[in-house]
Write a structure and sequence with these properties.
The chain is of the alpha/beta class. It is built from seven helices and 25 strands. Helix content is 21%, strand content 29%. The strands form seven sheets. The chain has an eight-stranded mixed sheet, with helices on both faces. Strands 16-19-22-24 form a four-stranded parallel sheet, with no helix packed on it. Strands 17-20-23-25 form a four-stranded parallel sheet. Bound molecules: guanosine-5'-diphosphate-alpha-D-mannose and magnesium ion.
């Protein structure tokens, strides 16, 4: 099965981290967000993933010189100018010939971290196919839906309303688009991929009108790692047992002074933590150096922190 993974956004909300590194290539535990995505897709039966690239494609090409990740074959579709979500899907899917096939394919927003079993979403789509489903989307419950695509469904899973980022208080539903879809190849008819088009603002509302959009709601672990607090949380949840997956908190090649304190934190490969330094609830990126007596709390340090410096709730880009 093929997947299209949307990785062409600007990662605006994670600046300055994303000035140097595109969002999907940021560390998540001891891997990257994108590597975990590939692990997750492979488990669901995905063999081939098309990376829908726009902003900063070069780091992706450099990160996967053999064009494979977690056993998934990678294909690269590079947009000349941002095509937005549906434009990017149409363009990337056509670049590998999915419009000429008959089987459905998976689509994932590149910043989603979830324990959803993709195979369950594929199975739900196959069930809804007989009712005319052109797409089946994963839904998750949230407290404040205003930052997401809010979805109204019938008990049988048919979607009756999709509103992207509604004004607070204007919708009753607490279920939102969780950013993983199964699409019929024929849905590409409404995603030509030759101009910017939003799947959330145009394509999904259009499919609702056609009664061709279905959904599967689950309460699996889920978050969108595209915001500072959720990006940090996604990392910490990989080491604290809240996930089905677990990763090492401290990489075996990191060097921790025996008089430092590191608690509830991810420390990447080759990082160094100095004497008397305190690292609490934070992410220390690969090769970052935390100076003697520095304090790093609730922060992401992909770059160095000077001796005795105190940083709290901060994002520190690599130099
Ligand atoms: N190739 C390409 N080209 N990718 C793009 C483009 C583009 O022009 N624009 C955005 N993307 C990618 C981003 O890189 C990201 O992986 C994905 O599309 C979604 O964009 P975000 O910017 O992360 O959107 P969001 O988080 O505000 O909202 C989306 O995700 C929510 C769930 O986390 C929407 O799909 C919402 O409906 C959804 O609830
Ligand atoms: Mg997002």
């Amino acid at each position: 099965m093929f997947a299209v993974v949307l990785v062409g956004g600007f990662g605006t909300r994670l600046r300055p981290l994303t000035n140097a590194v595109p969002k999907p290539l940021l560390p998540l535990g001891q891997r990257t967000i994108l590597e975990w995505m590939m692990v997750h897709l492979a488990r669901g039966g995905v063999t081939d993933a098309v990376l829908a690239l726009g902003f900063k494609p070069e780091p992706f090409l450099a990160a996967f010189p053999d064009r494979t990740c977690a056993g998934v074959r990678l294909h690269f579709a590079i947009e000349d100018a941002p095509l937005d979500t549906a434009g990017a899907i149409g363009f990337a899917a056509r670049s590998v010939g999915l419009h000429e096939r008959t089987e459905p394919f998976v689509v994932a927003n590149g910043d989603i971290v979830t324990d959803l079993r993709i195979a369950d979403l594929v199975a739900a789509h196959r069930r809804h196919r007989t009712d005319g489903a052109l797409a089946t989307i994963h839904l998750t419950p949230v407290v404040d839906p205003s930052q997401y695509g809010v979805v109204e469904t019938q008990p049988d899973g048919r979607v009756t309303g999709f509103v992207e980022k509604p004004a607070p208080g204007t919708t009753a539903s607490r279920h939102v688009n969780a950013g993983t879809y199964v699409l019929e190849a024929s849905s590409l008819d409404v995603m030509p991929g030759d101009a910017p088009l939003s799947i959330e603002r145009v394509t999904f509302p259009h499919l609702v009108q056609q009664q061709a959009l279905f959904a599967l709601a689950t309460d699996d672990y889920w978050l969108d790692a595209g915001r500072p607090d959720s990006y940090l949380r996604a990392n910490l949840d990989l080491i604290n047992g809240r996930r089905n997956d677990r990763d090492d908190a401290v990489h075996s090649s990191a060097v921790l002074d025996h008089e430092c304190e590191v608690r509830d934190s991810v420390v990447g490969a080759g990082a160094r933590i100095g004497k008397g330094a305190r690292v609490i609830g934070s992410v220390i990126g690969p090769r970052a150096v935390i100076g003697d007596s520095a304090v790093v709390e609730g922060s992401v340090a992909l770059g160095d922190v000077a001796a005795s410096q105190v940083v709290r709730d901060a994002l520190i880009a690599p130099a």
